[in-house]
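[Target chain]
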Amino acid sequence: MCKQLYADKPDELANIELFEREYTSDKAIWWYSFDSCLYRLLNKALRYRDFDLLFALRFFITDLARTIEREYEQFLRLSIERDPVKIFRGQCVSKNELELIFDNEQGFISMNSFFSTSRNRRVAMSYLQNCPMNNDNRRVLFEITIDPRLPIKPFADIKEHSAYPTEDEILITFGALYRIDKVIEHPQGGFHVVQLSLASENDYRLKEIYDYLKRTINQEYTLDSLGKILHEMGEYQHALKYYDRMMHETQIMLANCHMGIGRAMYGITSYDNALKHYQASLTIRKNEFGESHAEVGMSYGRVGAALCRQGEMQRSLENLNRATKIQEQTLPPNSLELAETYNTLGLAYFSLNNLQQAVNYFQKTLDIRVQVLPEDHPAIGFAYNNLSQALENDQRYELALSYAKKALTISLKILPQNHPDVERIEDNISRMIQLRNAQNPTSSSNDDSEHLLLASLGMN
């Protein structure tokens, strides 16, 4: 959605692509403070109740709100004296908005967006000076008093997290309410000063509102309750759209749960139960995504793996070939998920004694894992071992032996010397040496050096 909105602005597109590559939840404040389309889109969505945009940005809103809350909790823990804090914000408002503020002095005003302020009055004034003056706009300097001794909405000093730390920024979470203490027209500056106090949630006039929301929505205001809030507001079409999306996401989550349970069952060798959950995941994902989606390919692959373990090789290959076709079209060529499917294909062909295909797919598995994983990763060791087994059965003992030695080297770096997997690889190497020597007697001269190698590795 963001790319569509800024399709004709290459600088903003570059920022969006940077966000997609580098964003993590702990960087939410930095990205909000950074001068890009993100904070503008977010505040627009919050102010104007653009529910489609809010839905698209929901993860970022959640990350930002949680980060502010964590910073606020840390502030409360570390503060010995919680003296009131005065902060400032320079902003243009419409003529009508200023009149409403005038008329509601000693009343309350709600800020639907995250509210960015500064400890430094000069910073706020510099923003104020940049406000264009015309018949519809009015310059306003907000002077806000925060009393941390009261139960108030979270705020955070974001200097250490901001893209612009010199601005001494204080960020107040969205949905905060403020008491309008006083409105003053500055005699010379051409602007108005609006003095606000961040309202306490226990204020008796506000408590009724909070209690009502808790009763009708049955929880504090969160994004999860957006559908109920839309209904309460009479925004029925938006509520329907939101619930439709939520149902889609719920089905996806259910599919992920089936996938996770299936993997756990597979791990404890309960292959019947694993297959049941893999098939449930596949059915849901096909309904939600269609046939040609990477997640569907993953589910086909896991169904194939469970069938392979059950000895259902033809059915296994049918599912694995479907998985491969989808994944090769939708995943990057060095995808570890694709490597997992290749590995299962290798196991299936190995079980059918189709050694040429087994070697082919085990080699593909190894090639991907070597590209992506650290050189001593266990998955690379497994790939070497599988490849050596297939080559041994194909009577290519010299090559099989070289891969078995590589598997042993990796295993010894991550497992104790008496581990069953290590001992199994040692047995494989000893057997391959004998088979190679029987096939090619001239190779027996290498026996001593190879046994010395095993001894030096602690494996003889």
